[in-house]
Amino acid sequence: MADQKIFELQKNNPFWNPVLETLERERIRLLQLEKFKKIFQWAYDHSNFHKKLYKAAGVEPGDIKSFDDIHRIPKVEKSMMQKIQRKDPFPYGDALCVPIEEVTEFRQTSGTTGNPVYQPDTWQDWEWWSECWSYILWAQGYRPHDRVFIPFGYNIFVAFWAGHYAAEKIGCEVVPGGVLDTETRILKIQELKATAMMGTPTYMLNMAETAADKMGIDPSNLGIKRITCAGEPGASIPATKHRIESAWDALVYDHAGATEIGAWSYECQAQSGGLHVNEAFFLVEIEDIETGEIIEAPDRQGKMIITAFDRTAQPCIRFDSKDIIMWKKDPCPCGRSFRQIKGGVLGRTDDITKVKGVLLSPAAIEAVVRAIPELSNEYQVIVDKIQDHDNIELNVELMPDCVRNDKAVKTKLAKQLRLKTNLGYKIKFYDYGQLPRFSVKAKRFNDKRKKI
Q: What 3-state DSSP class applies to 389?
């Protein structure tokens, strides 16, 4: 009976952990400092890689007394992890902090920037992943009455594995869509009357398109009420979010995480234009890309340096994520004291490139294309060098009923691209359905100059 009362109280609470999510700022900072000291000491004592790195920088655990001291600690990059792995203790190398017998979970990064990084987790680490995701799902309105369909290929990439277990943890019914193809997944959603779903923005649009165009099923009639997106910036780009929400007649929420880091941020039901950083479990620093200065002021972009406090097998301490973010000024009306990053993840330092002397973010192109209803969801960007001059080509699809209006659409597209990116493009139209479709992360930006 007591357990039932606790359950009823939790069900009606807007916070998964009302104590931590509403802590005063000063107490959050104290908690973060103490947790940082603990994970730093752990890595120093148990990881040959980290100890060597810190000794070379002249930093020891006893030196960490304030946040200013944290900023002195050297950062870790993915390339560093790639170099030390595939060695004993195989395959994780010198960053492993526990006996190999305690590793119960294996995941790896996608490998889009070189060799994949292997990520070991203990059972405690995996429980930590699930708890982080519980914050996300609860904040987005998932409750025990939800039937959650998860349409991703369960494999060595972390994707929505932890989302699956967190949905179970908070009491939802989970339907794993694993090896099913897109059409079968849609039929299963229809058959079981699923109410919620998780996936990349690209695949959520792809599923809706398949339902409407190939199956004659209106996805907005399938009963999905909420969708959690991750893996791409799209769900924080208003035009993309609007397309997904309109297609499914569902609320769409963004989340950012990474294999090496964990599930560090989430959009809440207030949808106030940012993602909460789960500051009880992570320390996020924003570093000026040019000067290395730590940015505390809002509305100023920098790259994210992040620490996961409670992950022990292979610690993530001051990891240079390459993600471009900025702090949001105003507190969220949801009542959480966790800070927000404005507009979600805005891009990556390794994606932002100079074209014709102008800095270009692929996310800016997506925002333009997705805001023009005459264009389909798919597009391709190809940057090349022709006779020492940069050339940028944009391939887009016209919606079937807009073919006769192609000149007007091209004019509108070119104008918006010039306005939002300060660049001119060679625009090429394709028939609807000709460009590639993607089921996980989309590969729409191809800078051929980097391959020369």
A: strand
In angstroms, the first-to-last Cα distance of the chain is 69
* CB 204, CB 150: distance < 8 Å: no
Residue 299: how many CA atoms within 13 Å on its side-chain side? 2
DSSP state of 169: H
The three-class DSSP label of residue 284 is: strand
pLDDT tens, residue by residue, 167-188: 999 999 999 999 899 999 999 9
- Residue 445, beta-bridge partner list: 381
* C-beta separation of 153 from 179 below 8 A: yes
What are the chain's domains? Answer: 13-350 (3.40.50.12780), 353-451 (3.30.300.30)
Paired tokens of 383: 């940057």
Burial of 101 (0-12, 13-18, 19+ CB in 10 A): exposed
Q: What are the DSSP calls for 156-215, one per residue?
A: SS-TTHHHHHHHHHTT-EEEE-TT--HHHHHHHHHHHT--EEEE-HHHHHHHHHHHHHHS
The pTM of this model reads 0.91
Per-residue pLDDT averaged across 39-45, rounded?
98
